[in-house]
Amino acid sequence: MCNLHYQQMSHESFYQVCSEAGAFIGGLIFNLKTLTPCQTLARREAGFKMENIAALRRKIGILTDNTIYNICSKVIDRVEELCTGKAYSALSIGVIHGDLTLENLVFTKKDESNEYFVNGVIDFMDSNIGGYVFEVANAMCSVMHASVINGGTDPFFAVGITLKSILSHVSFNDRELDALFISVLGRLCTLLIFCRHDAANSTQTANHIPLKFDILERILQDVWGVGKDEWKRSVLI
């Protein structure tokens, strides 16, 4: 099953889902690193990052809240610096899923217990060549969004559990761990801008989007507000 009902889940079960999802994601990334990119994916890598950044700049006007607009504007600048500067060369790059979120993991419930395990992943439509920190950032944003929906769980602690499980299968260097902070912010801004833009221009898309914009805005402000160093201390458990 996909799209678990997090609001009906106990805190213990939710944290177990985070740990299980992290273990699966870490294992998947470990295996993706062994793949040799096909020519189609190899051609996508060069323009993928900058095309997204240019599109974000074009569509940022969809944000009507000044605080959110200003944060996203600064984040886009930081993401561009990451993708065009020396820091990018320090990232592990290879074949990525491209949309690795809780919504794209297939969960199975263990008998009559409240435990779940992951036995698959769907939706490889966004597969491309990129940094694995971006892949992990996608998952971390999804976990924080689900944590708020669950209610009462700490989004940063939930991310910490997920990241700990990921890092038990794949290692990140110090620069990659630093890049996770801006990558998470970049993912949150991307979701807010692109999904708001799509929802405003298509009723069908608006009904399909499972994200709650007010939750994304709250998470964005929380992550931006604590800063990189405090955020790292919170999630590296």
Features:
single chain, 237 residues, mainly alpha, Aminoglycoside 3'-phosphotransferase, Chain: A, domain 2, two-stranded antiparallel ribbon, 8 helices, 64% helix
Taking strands numbered 1, 2, ... along the chain, how are they ordered across the largest sheet? 1-4
Specify Rg, calculated over alpha carbons: 17 Å
What is the mean pLDDT?
86
The top-level CATH class is Alpha Beta
The biggest beta sheet is recorded as: 2 strands, antiparallel
Based on CA inertia axes, which overall geometry fits? globular
- Structural class based on helices, strands and sheet pairing: mainly alpha
Number of helices: 8
Q: What's the CATH topology label?
A: Aminoglycoside 3'-phosphotransferase, Chain: A, domain 2
Strand fraction: 5-15%
Unreliable spans:
none
| Number of self-contained structural domains | 1
What is the total tally of β strands?
4
Distance between the termini: 29 Å
- CATH level-two architecture: Alpha-Beta Complex
Helix content: 55-70%
Give an overview in words.
It is a single chain. With 237 residues, the chain is mainly alpha-helical. The chain has one domain: Aminoglycoside phosphotransferase (APH), C-terminal lobe (Aminoglycoside 3'-phosphotransferase, Chain: A, domain 2, Alpha-Beta Complex). The protein contains eight helices and four strands. The chain has helices at 11-32, 39-59, 66-84, 132-150, 155-167, 174-201, 203-208, 213-235, and strands spanning 93-96, 105-109, 116-121, 128-131. It has a two-stranded antiparallel sheet with strand order 1-4. Strands 2-3 form a two-stranded antiparallel ribbon. Strand 2 (105-109) and strand 3 (116-121) form a beta hairpin. Helix 2 packs antiparallel against helix 3 (66-84), helix 3 crosses helix 6 and helix 4 (132-150) packs antiparallel against helix 5 (155-167). The longest helix has 28 residues, at 174-201. The chain starts with 10 loop residues before the first helix and ends with a helix. The relative contact order is 0.18.
